[in-house]
From TrEMBL:
One of its GO terms (molecular function) is NAD+ binding. Transmembrane segments: none annotated. The keyword Oxidoreductase applies. It holds the Pfam family PDH_N. GO terms for biological process: tyrosine biosynthetic process. This is Prephenate dehydrogenase/arogenate dehydrogenase family protein. Keywords: Oxidoreductase. Residues 6-244 form the Prephenate/arogenate dehydrogenase domain.
């Protein structure tokens, strides 16, 4: 379990970084480094760091888009020490896992993770929601897993980056593709079934995700392209006529 003596540094303080800070600040010391964030923009219980040289958390969480992971690692890697654990929270796992293993210094523990929720789906609390852990280097992840299960009441799934991306192509990539497509169809019909409403509700949960999230999930996950082609094939032998 984590304790108030455990220190966590969150690199990146966007919507998800703020969500992480709000949950973790109740259990341990939290600091934030975001070079685009002016001082004074963090909550009172969160310490603001002015540069990567100040990163000293036992756990360092990269709360940045996958497109920014390489740049982030280049900036912070020279300031990390053996024994620290670096954790990413990107929506795909193979690419950030490869980057962390290649760019982090020797002795740093590495854990790739994917919370299967965001500020919208977790706004009423995260208890019972899934988080995927992909241990890459070190054993400290087990202690963190206990905290996630017992402290935050999350449903912890341990797997590999490859297996995560394969399954997420279906459970997340497909949903984002459908949400993007349906968004172009116009207003919701007045005449509709309950199943349509449930479908629309599910799509609405991801409809307003940032463009970089959509790009990462649908284009940087290598398993999505095959799934998309299979979907098109199963829809029929002939292309559908355009909607008017």
């Amino acid at each position: 379990m984590l304790s108030h003596s455990t220190s966590v540094t969150i690199v990146g303080f966007g919507a998800f970084g703020r969500m992480i800070a709000a949950h973790l600040a109740l259990h341990c010391a939290v600091s934030v480094y975001d070079r685009g964030l002016p001082p004074g923009q963090t909550p009172a219980q969160v310490r603001f760091l002015t540069g990567p040289q100040e990163i000293c958390g036992d756990i360092v969480i990269l709360a940045v888009p996958v497109q920014a992971v390489a740049e982030c690692l280049r900036e912070i890697a020279p300031h990390l020490r053996a024994g620290q654990m670096v954790v990413d929270v990107c929506s795909i796992k193979e690419e950030p896992a490869r980057l962390m293993q290649a760019m982090l210094p020797e002795g740093v523990e590495i854990l790739a993770t994917h919370p299967m929720f965001g500020p919208a789906s977790g706004r009423m609390g995260v208890a019972g929601l899934q988080i995927v852990l992909c241990p890459l280097q070190g054993k400290g992840w087990r202690r963190l897993a206990v905290f996630l299960r017992r402290g935050l009441k999350l449903d912890v799934i341990v797997t590999t980056p490859e297996e995560h991306d394969r399954q997420a192509a279906m459970s997340q990539g497909l949903i984002h593709l459908l949400a993007h497509a349906v968004q172009t169809w116009g207003e919701r019909p007045t005449i509709r079934t309950k199943s349509y409403d449930l479908f629309a509700e599910a799509l609405a949960m991801v409809r307003d995700d940032a463009p970089e999230v959509f790009e990462a999930i649908t284009q940087r996950n290598s398993h999505v392209a095959t799934l998309r082609e299979h979907l098109l094939q199963t829809m029929g032998p002939r292309p559908l006529a355009p909607l008017e």
